[in-house]
Amino acid sequence: MANWFYASEGKQQGPYQEGQFRDLVAQGVVRPDTLVWSEGMAGWQKAAEIPGLIGGGGAPSMMPTGGPPMMGSGGYAGGGYAGAGESLAVDFGILEFTWRSIAMLIGMCFIIAVPWVFVWYAKWIVSCVKVPGRPNLSFTGSAMALVPWFFGFIVLAIVIGFTGIQLLSNLLFIVQIVLYWLLIKWMVENLASNGQPLGLSFTGSVWAYIGWNLLFAISIITIVGWAWVAAAQLRWMCRNIQGTRRDIIFRGSGLEILWRGIVAAILSSFIIPIPWVYRWIMNWFASQTELAPGGSL
Q1: Most exposed residue of 119, 121, 255, 284, measured as fewest CB within 10 angstroms of its CB?
Q2: Nearest to 13 by CA among 42, 57, 54, 44
Q3: In this predicted model, what pLDDT tens digit does every residue of 241-261 receive, in sequence order?
Q4: Which secondary structure element, helix H or strand E, spans residue 192, and what is its range?
């Protein structure tokens, strides 16, 4: 079965099997003027010029850098571009962020609706993340997967609250960290591109995750040390996302996180700037998260 590539912003995307590529055409990712290439073709051509693919005609435009891709070129699980590392990006409107965030806060006040509200919000915010070589990122998780964890934690918290035993309260803190770890694993496993699961997994151990969170809690005492712990933890988390041939690298430093955190806290105290501050912070973290060719670490 033939493998297909297409060009986006001067870079090759692929390989995609015939069925996957037809889906990209149907979804409008590959348009009539998109340059495409497959085995047996002499060079890049517009999709509209390929008989039976879209239809139409016209002269080919500028070819992407590097010429037609060859089988075995770099990429990552199931497809991707072959080239230097690129950073993630986040793009969302302030008005949409504002109303969705307010709706989420109101929904969470009802407690029982938390799993559904969280998944609704997660689906939206994930779709705002732009990943090089992975168009139309989406989140496919179901709220029902969260129900046992969430309500189990609520019941445990109520029971521990009635006992009033301090040791059990500390245990509840550890259980909460474990649930966050499970949430990260679940979210990573449910990421998709163009409706196709990415096949990613988070392999960081629960004990390491507990250790990082305890270290972060202790670092708060130092006033500024938390930022360096946060940077190191993010690098650890990126290293433990498996299922891609590209290395996921967080480049941000503790100092950069510290001053941005201080600025964000000051501006957020005025309430109104919060949406702009949130987008600014998210864009920075995304820009510091790079997808690089395997072996770059």
Answers
A1: 255
A2: 44
A3: 999 878 899 999 999 999 999
A4: strand 191-193
Query: Residue 200 belongs to what H/E stretch?
Result: none
pLDDT tens for 118-151 read 999 999 999 999 988 788 899 999 999 999 999 9
- Its sign, for the CA torsion 27, 44, 53, 19, is negative
Q: Are 43 and 37 in contact (CB under 8 A)?
A: yes
Angle at CA of residue 215, ends 266 and 191, nearest 5°: 75
Strands 191-193 and 35-38: unpaired
Rounded to 5 degrees, φ, ψ at 126 are -65, -40
- Taking the C-alpha atoms of residue 175 and residue 157, their distance in angstroms, rounded to an integer, is 10
Instruction: Give phi and psi for 157, each to the nearest 5.
Output: -65, -40
Q: For 30-43, give the secondary structure using H, E and C.
A: CCCCCEEEECCCCC
User: Of 17, 155, 29, 5, whose CA–CA distance to 80 is shortest?
Assistant: 5
Please answer whether residues 75 and 245 qualify as being in contact, where contact means their C-beta atoms are separated by less than 8 angstroms: yes
Which residues are CB-contacts of 136 (< 8 A; sequence separation ≥ 6)?
A: 27, 29, 127, 193, 194, 195
Side chain identity at residue 77, one-letter code: A
| CA gap 136, 147 in Å, rounded | 27
CB 198 within 8 A of CB 192: yes
Alpha carbon separation from 240 to 202, 217, 282 (Å, rounded): 6, 22, 21
**Distance, CA of 57 to CA of 134 (rounded, Å):** 28
- What is the greatest pairwise CA distance in the chain? 77
